[in-house]
Structure formats: structure tokens, C-alpha cells
Design a protein that fits this description.
The protein has helices spanning 2-14, 19-31, 33-52, 62-77, 83-101, 265-276, 301-311, and strands at residues 117-122, 128-131, 137-140, 144-149, 157-168, 177-181, 184-188, 192-197, 203-210, 213-217, 220-224, 228-233, 239-243, 257-264, 279-282, 291-297, 315-319, 322-326. By secondary structure, it is of the alpha+beta class. The chain has 3 domains: 2-101, no CATH class; 117-249, Jelly Rolls (Sandwich); 256-326, 3-Layer(bab) Sandwich (Phage tail protein beta-alpha-beta fold). The strands form 3 sheets. Strands 1, 2, 3, 4, 5, 6, 7, 8, 9, 10, 11, 12 and 13 form a 13-stranded mixed β-sheet that branches. A 3-stranded mixed β-sheet has the order 15-18-17. The longest helix is centred in the first third of the chain and has 20 residues, at 33-52. The protein is elongated, with a radius of gyration of 26 Å.
């Protein structure tokens, strides 16, 4: 079945398909991840040829493409075309056809259209899961905001986050995936990694599970390998790279597991405040001297507080969504 639809798509892009085949392929492009990936790969291939030819220049607008198409058609008709023009025609015609197909499936390709953006906010006490048109999967932690284009660009895929997110990025070496977070960039072509970048935190942390990535801040770039964590201090501007024994622990939150390892109470308060939508009120500043190590399947906030009281001599008194901390 997959081979059949691929052959049919090739016929459409080559201009030899029947009306029924065009209708089937258009539906495949617009309603399936596989179809969108096929279309994306076709565009990437054509874009690569464009960029490799110095006489072609930048991407064309629809009117420019139409003008160039007519010019090439006339040259072919007169049978006086040079080898260079043949190469350009081979590149331009599929892109024109893809652009025309956009009218059939409500501009799902979005190649020549102006970029428009969408935004999703996950409130405290909740989490979310998001799929992009290229097949990339994103888990969003509580109190996280993500901004992304409704259609990814031809040359790169970019998103902006404030909060915490875990990315399973679909591999595409010609279209890097870029995560922007508070003046930093994490650049990948296909990998799995966790980004912790809350606005109220002094640090940004990126933990790489699989593949390769590059963490970029100011004019510096820090290549990362699986099992490594990069930590950027927004106050001092210092960036450090760590080798982790269990890198997957950084993203246990997406499995609804509460994980703390030698974590200061100040950070515990922030994490639980987001995940359970509660407010902590510190009545005894000395309680901040304690740290917590805990791994537990996410239960009720009362059960978590009981576990914390077993670890250190700190009391947690809850009144609805407010929790008072004392010694």
C-alpha cells in the first residue's frame, strides 16, 4: 500500500497523474504524517538543488515562479534550451506543482505563504502533548508556554518556549529544529532532549537523551552528546556541561513521576507549586537549609507532603491550595 501511494505521489509531482490520483495524493498529503513528511522531503530536495545552483538565487514568490515557468516553457518549445535551463526547469516545475496542490488541500504545504504563529499555554496542575506537522512530538510540563509556526519554514523548524518541554524531533538533516528559550538556542536535526527554561528560574538546563545537539548562547556554541546536561546561569552568564549517569531522570515528569535528587527546598516548592497548582508560604526560613531526594509515582499533593516530612524535620500544613512551611 505504501509503495502504491509513493508511486502515485511521484506521478503527481511529475505531472503524469490522473485526476483521481491527484485527489488521493492530495488527501494523503493533507491528512497523514507520512504524506506530510513525503511532501516535506520533496520540498527539501528541491530546495537543496536550488541552493547548490548559484544562478538560481533565493526562493521565488508565486508570481516570480509563474513568470519563470512561462519563460522556461517558451524556451523548451523553441528547442533552444541550454543544459543549465533544463536543470532549473527540473527544479522549478515540481515546486510550482506543489504550490498549485496547495489550493486543493487548504494550503497545508504553506511553502510561499507568510508565516503565521500559534501559541499554547499549559496552566499549573496540568500537562500536554503536542504533535507538529513534521511528526515531531512534544511533551509540555505545567506552567509552560510554547509559540510555534502553523507551518514550519522551508529551511528550518523553530519554536519558542518558556517553561519545560521534552522533544522527540523527527530527523531532517536539511531542516534543523531550533528551540529558543530566553536568548538561548538548542539546535538539532533529529533527537530526544529535555529543556527546562522557566522565566522565574536563574538557570536553563538542557539534557540530551539521544542523538546530537548544539546549545548556543550569545556567540558561543556547546556541542552535546547523549547523557550530557548543559546548564546556563542567566545571572552570571556561565555555562557548564555535565555527564549524567541517568539522564532520563530529568524527564520523568512526562511519566507523571515526581523526582528530586538532593534538591533544595526552594526548588521543591517551585516544582510542586507548578505540578499541583498550590502556593507555598515559608514561615520558618531555616527550612530552606534542607534538601530532598525522592522518586515516586505522582500521587496527591497530601501524599507527597507526607513523604517529604519523613525526609527532613520540616512540617507542611495545607489549607486548600495554600501550604504553610514551618520547623
Amino acid at each position: 500500500m505504501q509503495s502504491t501511494i509513493n508511486n502515485m505521489a511521484n506521478s503527481v509531482l511529475n505531472g503524469t497523474a490522473t485526476r483521481d490520483e491527484v485527489r488521493k495524493v492530495t488527501d494523503w498529503f493533507s491528512s497523514t504524517i507520512e504524506g506530510q513528511q513525503y511532501l516535506s522531503d520533496s520540498i527539501d530536495r528541491d530546495a537543496y538543488l536550488f541552493e547548490s545552483e548559484p544562478h538560481v538565487g533565493d526562493l521565488f514568490s508565486p508570481s516570480q515562479s509563474d513568470h519563470l515557468y512561462k519563460k522556461i516553457e517558451k524556451t523548451i518549445y523553441e528547442k533552444r534550451i541550454r543544459r543549465m535551463s533544463l536543470k532549473v526547469a527540473a527544479v522549478v516545475l515540481p515546486i510550482l506543482l506543489i504550490s498549485a496542490l496547495g489550493y486543493f488541500f487548504n494550503d497545508h504545504a504553506g511553502v510561499f505563504t507568510q508565516t503565521t504563529y500559534a501559541e499554547l499555554f499549559v496552566p499549573k496542575g496540568e500537562d500536554a502533548r503536542l504533535f507538529f506537522q513534521d511528526g515531531t512530538e512534544v511533551f509540555l510540563n505545567a506552567d509552560t508556554r510554547i509559540r510555534y509556526p502553523e507551518k514550519f519554514g522551508l529551511r528550518k523548524r523553530e519554536v519558542w518556549i518558556d517553561g519545560e518541554a521534552y522533544f522527540n524531533v523527527t530527523t531532517n538533516k536539511r531542516r534543523p529544529f531550533v528551540v529558543h528559550a530566553h536568548n538561548t538556542r538548542t539546535v538539532v536535526t533529529g533527537t530526544s532532549f529535555n529543556v527546562n527554561a522557566y522565566g522565574d528560574s536563574e538557570k536553563i538546563q538542557v539534557v540530551l537523551d539521544e542523538g546530537k545537539t548544539s546549545f548556543q548562547v550569545l556567540q558561543n556554541s556547546f556541542p552535546m552528546l547523549p547523557g550530557q546536561k548543559v546548564e546556563y546561569d542567566k545571572i552570571t552568564g556561565k555555562t557548564t556541561l555535565h555527564n549524567l549517569v541517568r539522564p532520563h531522570n530529568a524527564s520523568l515528569w512526562k511519566k507523571h513521576i515526581v523526582y528530586f535528587y538532593d534538591t533544595p527546598l526552594s526548588e521543591v516548592m517551585k516544582v510542586l507549586g507548578r505540578q499541583y497548582n498550590v502556593e507555598f508560604h515559608l514561615q520558618s526560613p531555616k527550612a530552606l537549609d534542607y534538601t530532598y531526594t525522592l522518586t515516586t509515582k505522582q500521587a496527591s499533593i497530601d501524599e507527597i507532603l507526607m513523604e517529604l516530612q519523613k525526609i527532613a524535620p520540616v512540617k507542611f500544613n495545607r489549607e486548600q491550595n495554600k501550604i504553610y512551611i514551618s520547623i
